[in-house]
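Late entry, written up from scratch paper. The run itself happened at the end of the previous shift, but nothing got recorded in the book at the time, so transcribing now.
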Amino acid sequence: MDSAHLEILTADQMRQAEDQAARELPGGTFTLMENAGQAVFDFLLTRHAEAHGFDVLCGPGNNGGDGYVVARLLREAGLDVRLFALAAPREGTDAARAASGWSGSVEDLATWQPEEGRLIVDAIFGAGLSRNLEGLVLDVVREARTAASTVVAVDLPTGIEADTGAVLEDAFKASATISFCRAKPAHLMLPGRAHCGDVIIRDIGIDPRHIEGLKPKMKLNAPTLWANDFPWPGETDHKYTRGHVGVFGGGAMTTGAARLSAMAAARIGAGAVTVLSPANALLLYAMNLTSIMVARYEIEQELDDFLTRRHPQAFVLGPGFGAPGKARAIVRRLSEADEAVRPKAIVLDADGLTAFEERPEELFEIAAEYRGQGGQLVMSPHMGEYKRLFSEVEGGPVELARQAAARAQCVLLLKGADTVIADPEGNVVINSSAPAWLATAGSGDVLAGMIGGLLAQGMPALGAASAACQLHAQCAAVHGPGLMAEDIPGLLPSVLRDLWREGRDHLQTER
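Output as recorded:
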């Protein structure tokens, strides 16, 4: 997939793109409406020609206008179609013009009843809704669900908020959603994504030029975004040029989390990985790790000596660590180390984040100073950890991640079924490919280690977080049911092999 089609537009950006395109089209915005209706009709004819009939439900706005076009085309094709309207389009609008092209009867939406075998085309509100459903439309949505009617949505299922994916009281559950030009956040973000069914994006005549000028900063995660920066080893590389990751380990009863992070950092390609262990757990780490090195860390001098002697490029702090006071001291020590030994990147996860829950301003101050010195900080909270640090931020996941990244001057990866990654400049990457199998203890520890491993090899923070997130999800997809966190590092080689082969095939084709 080319990078342009990974762009995600808000509802407002989509309207701006349509307006710009309309200035160059002979029929203006009505041509776009005709093209949108044609795209939905083509899909219906390809996938649902066997339906007993089609009930097109139209709202009074542009989404309804698309529906009138769909109904007209279905009727012209000789298919059984009925049209139900919530209200008449406003006079002089594109929707009114589309409605004038419909020669059949217009029935009141209040009279609609589901009938077995008839497919619903949802063209009531699409992306134009920002308030909760109520009254007649809410009743229709619930009747359709009770009847298990097949629904194909135009642009977005009615009841889904376009920019967040939120369900506005209730929403149609579509088997497919036909949208146009570019995806919107709701096509990718839960719970909206679960209501969209198959999302098909069709071209309706909007040139990429009209989107470039909007400078969209939101994209769908895919190798196209970060493959050029992925740190494949070169012929002259050795373990010291492939990056060294330090993972801070917890005490004797919590060694598993750090070991998972360390193994993941090694599997993702770091040339060397060291677990820094308290004295009471040193032997446990040594007995359970083979290619991973172990070093004692109890006092600050031992950390200073390790930095001077080994000079790791990246550190991971948090998985199974505990000791909030010690965690805060480590973050400050690493960020304030002499330039010659200061790590280039730090990943904070789990206990590395909750250590600052009562003093988030201290973390933000350290993060700003560290970034000012060229350091890359990645935070990877789940929603619970997020709220302890950013309690004043409100909005959907995209807005939460974006505001937090700006506030903390870091790359922030907000974990969930639809993980959102943001940087301080407002760039956002949405990862919507995570299988449910990842909902298992320790999977976040593995992800933190993967990010650390890529950062140690010199990958930029946004790309490292995005790549790790997608590869992490692909490992889970390969394994399927029964996944445990410790399975993921072992699955990475085959996933990386496929990525490497795809890259080589592309280079050979380009030659």
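The chain has a mean pLDDT of 95.
(Scratch paper discarded after transcription.)
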